[in-house]
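// run 5 | inverse folding | seed 20
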């Protein structure tokens, strides 16, 4: 018999630590070499690490949701071979993992056992809490059950007795007092930290304007009615991305990153548009690279490819980073308006709301039109209100003349 000490390997991204998001084996389990052992996350990339040797796990280090340093001890494995030297930090190359389980699927916290009070009173936490709210002393109550445990029925009996004696008593109610604790780990924690950092550091300026998409929707329906082989169905997003690209040519200051520590604005020539995408794990932002040179259908194809990869948890780190401006859309749930949060170090984000058909006035006449709001936010440190409004005006101008977007 021997033991093998396995340490967290370098996952190849130049990082010093990673978050443990899921264990696939427990202490006492017998595992085989290369069998999935643990999932770790760095930024938005999840890596599945396999077992380096076969054997039985005798100890495991690092709770789910905790950070572990590269080179830190993860597990000790008892093997059939002679004692093996501890694994170096670059042992076993990791492979991309399947999506980690969502926080809602995490094991529920162990239920607290009924506590004994002063060696005499047995009662569940919910019963104790309710008794305290009613001002009842549990030590003065006699449980009806043979096991000596006080229950809600015992409290109800006291309240009814009070009421029968003429004293006021609150109406007994029954319902679930269960509280589920969901640990914020993995991607959900990274989203929370990133959003908090964005709101803390960036003075957001939000701007909402409506756009008439009647003509655009007609063009889109016509193109989708007779699709060409190999071309995906067109949604609104490819048109919006093309409109943003054309507008940015006149407003290059919006296609930028702001380094607030160095106080430097970096304007980018290439337009890498992030598309906020909802996945079972949470919100991620795959990036349409070089949108400025893509046709409408090339953009649609790339959106479809990246969104499928993101939802399957297979998008690479490179595909989830490097955007210069972001588009956010809730699709059919888009609402009337929103205040999207900027994806730092970008300086702008364009949000899409739902399309509604409503009456509008055109040349003194009331007609129906398909209308949609654009809800956008800007970094007010480097983007003035006038420039933001002018940019959105140009985006709207492109959307209301969809023929130009087909070029």
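// decoded
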């Amino acid at each position: 018999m021997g033991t093998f000490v396995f340490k967290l390997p370098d996952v190849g991204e130049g990082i010093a630590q990673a978050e443990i998001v899921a264990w696939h084996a427990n202490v006492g389990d017998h595992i085989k070499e290369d069998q999935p052992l643990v999932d770790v996350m760095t930024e938005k990339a999840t890596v599945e690490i396999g077992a380096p040797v076969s054997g039985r796990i005798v100890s495991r280090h690092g709770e789910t949701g905790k950070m572990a340093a590269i080179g830190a001890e993860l597990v000790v494995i008892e093997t059939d071979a002679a004692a093996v030297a501890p694994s170096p930090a670059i042992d076993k190359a990791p492979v991309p993992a399947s999506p980690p389980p969502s926080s809602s699927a995490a094991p529920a916290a162990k239920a607290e056992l009924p506590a004994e009070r002063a060696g005499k009173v047995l009662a569940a936490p919910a019963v104790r809490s309710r008794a305290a709210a009613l001002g009842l002393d549990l030590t003065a109550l006699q449980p009806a059950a043979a096991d000596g445990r006080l229950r809600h029925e015992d409290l109800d009996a006291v309240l009814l007795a009070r009421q029968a004696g003429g004293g006021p008593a609150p109406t007994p109610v029954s319902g679930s007092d269960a509280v589920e604790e969901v640990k914020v780990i993995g991607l959900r924690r990274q989203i929370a930290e990133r959003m908090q950092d964005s709101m803390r550091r960036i003075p957001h300026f939000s701007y909402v304007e409506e756009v008439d998409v009647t003509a655009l929707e007609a063009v889109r329906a016509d193109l989708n009615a007779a699709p060409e082989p190999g071309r995906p169905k067109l949604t609104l997003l490819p048109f919006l991305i093309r409109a943003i690209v054309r507008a940015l040519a006149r407003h290059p200051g919006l296609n930028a990153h702001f380094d607030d520590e160095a106080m430097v604005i970096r304007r980018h020539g290439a337009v890498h548009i992030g598309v906020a995408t909802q996945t079972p794990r949470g919100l991620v932002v795959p990036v349409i690279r070089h949108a400025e040179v893509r046709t409408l259908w090339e953009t649609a194809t790339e959106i479809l490819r990246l969104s499928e990869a993101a939802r399957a948890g297979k998008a690479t780190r490179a595909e989830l980073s490097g955007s210069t401006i972001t588009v956010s859309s809730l699709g059919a749930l888009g609402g009337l308006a929103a205040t999207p949060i900027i994806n730092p170090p970008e300086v702008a984000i364009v949000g899409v709301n739902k399309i509604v058909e409503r009456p509008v006035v055109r040349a003194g006449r009331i007609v129906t039109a398909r209308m949609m709001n654009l809800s956008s936010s800007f970094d007010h440190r480097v983007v003035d209100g006038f420039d933001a409004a002018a940019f959105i005006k140009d985006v709207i101008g492109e959307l209301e003349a969809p023929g130009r977007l087909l070029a």
